[in-house]
Task: structure prediction
Amino acid sequence: MPKLLVTGAAGHLGRAVIHHLLETEQVAPADLIAGSRHLSKLSELAAKGVETRRVDFNDAEGLASAFAGVERVLLISTDDLATPGGRLKQHQAAVSAAASAGVRHLVYTSMPNPDRSLVSFAPDHLGTEKAIQQSGLAYTILRNAWYHDNYLMSMPHNLQTGKWFTAMGDGRITNISRDDCARAAAAALARPAAENRILSLTGLQSLNAHEIASLVTEATGKPLEVVPVSDEQLAQGLAGAGLPDFVVKMLVSADANVRAGYFDLVTNDFNALTGREPQSLRDFLAAHRDALAAGH
Result:
């Protein structure tokens, strides 16, 4: 079996991918390599027989060593959102190192419609996709829809006040769970196709703010009123809540992207890749009822 490397293995998505490689795809631990800047966070995987390697996207020489002897790499986009252009530079270094090391197939976690997205970090993904396509590597690009899980960060507060201030307007968005994206990434890494592919991983429904709020109320029994606001008003509210400037820009741009229709897409790519249907937002919210109602 070829060696498979997962970068960002200490993160939420990376850990879930490793889980699905071991449990769902039945990849032997000896064939897996978990990569992270923080090897101490990978001790549980090491105890299971998974090899661990230090993978630091800011260390070009280290990347060459990290990718040595690896046939397939899952490149999970990094979390460097605060530094303008920083994440793209990291990704480009990783793609270059993978090509130099003789990696045969690269899987990358991107986002929907990066070529026309209004989301603040879309240029990072578009630039990375271009770097991969120009590298000569065989590739699978997974354009992950906005996670169900993102609602767990904002909705508990919204439910406390009973109001959801949003600049989504009448736009619609399809969501998918982080775990389903991890399942798909594991499948793409363990069973790569012969041809290069760009897949958009989405749920089966595209919903507007009122429909999402209704599902949140259904799951929690708590009323939630949608309050439409402008981009400027949303930015003021988020900044007033103490969020960093780059986070404010990201969240405002995400709502603008929904309003523009660029998150409104539904595909069958997840089903084709995994042989199953993605978890619905309704089922996800029901499963995380306690987390949603944490503020009550």
